[in-house]
Amino acid sequence: MTEDTTVVRGRAYGDGTYVASASSVASVSGSASVSGGVASAYKGFNKNATFAQCWESAPGGYAGKSGPQKNGAYSDTVTTTVDGAPVPGKWLQLQLPGPIVLTSYSISPRQDGSYPLHQRNPGTRVLAGSADGATWTRLSAVTGHQWTDYDTLTLDLASMAAAPPPLICFRLIVVNVGNWGTGDHPGASINELYLTGK
Fold first, then answer.
1. Closest to 88 (Cα-Cα) out of 134, 47, 139, 124
2. How many Å apart are CA 137 and CA 13, to the nearest integer?
3. What is the number of other CB atoms lying within 10 angstroms of the CB of residue 146?
4. How far apart (Å, rounded) are the C-alpha atoms in residues 122 and 190?
5. To which H or E segment does residue 169 belong?
6. According to the model, what pLDDT value does residue 1 have?
7. How many other β-carbons are positioned within 10 Å of the β-carbon of residue 156?
8. Largest pairwise CA distance in the chain
9. Helix/strand/coil (H/E/C) assignment for every residue in 74-133
10. C-alpha to C-alpha distance for 168 and 95, rounded to whole angstroms
């Protein structure tokens, strides 16, 4: 993707309009650390794994290592209703040109050798899918993932009790950032979110 709304043409599979969105994006005007000064939603899907090409939420809401909570937990007002219950956390979303049955997804953490990997990447998270962008179904939930390297983490959805239906929207909700006791940033970041389906 090259913008939050990107049109793909001339491919055997996947032509159409893709729309990336997020609950918020960090604006770091004048910073060399984020390309264009804004950590836009599409940068979580642009297949560019360099440090400056990541999505990062606006700061606020996640407990840091110096706060009363030291687990990077989210405690602000952004929620997504998933299976009828609110799930707290900032989110990154992709709407596809047409529905797919999601078979796996991967997260590539923000790539920055000078920044502690384990502090700002998604620890506890929920992947939700929707056929209409309004009603969300839980597809995967991971609690307390401990980041130890910059490798891409892939989760296979084949182990689900029932295969998910074809869906057009996918949202990754970041409930907690960082490894337990090390979260140091009030925002969430994702370098790349990859969705694989059929």
1. 124
2. 25
3. 10
4. 7
5. strand 167-177
6. 85
7. 12
8. 53
9. ECCCCEEEECCEEEECEEEEEEEEEEECEEEEEEECCCCCCCCHHHHCEEEEEEEEECCC
10. 6
Paired tokens of 24: 């918020």
| Residue 115: predicted pLDDT | 56
Separation CA 88–CA 78 (nearest Å):
6
**Spatial CA neighbour of 171 closest among 120, 119, 135:** 135
8-state DSSP, 36: G
Tens digit of each residue's pLDDT, the chain (198 residues):
888 999 999 887 788 999 999 999 887 654 444 445 568 899 999 988 776 788 888 887 777 655 545 567 787 889 999 999 999 999 999 999 999 999 888 888 876 655 555 567 788 899 999 999 999 999 988 887 777 766 677 777 766 656 778 999 999 999 988 755 555 567 788 889 999 888
Q: Where are the beta strands (DSSP E) in 23-84?
A: 55-56, 79-82
Which helix (H) or strand (E) covers residue 143, if one does? none
Q: If you ran DSSP here, which 8-state letter would residue 140 be given?
A: E
Q: How far apart are CA 10 and CA 33, in angstroms?
A: 33
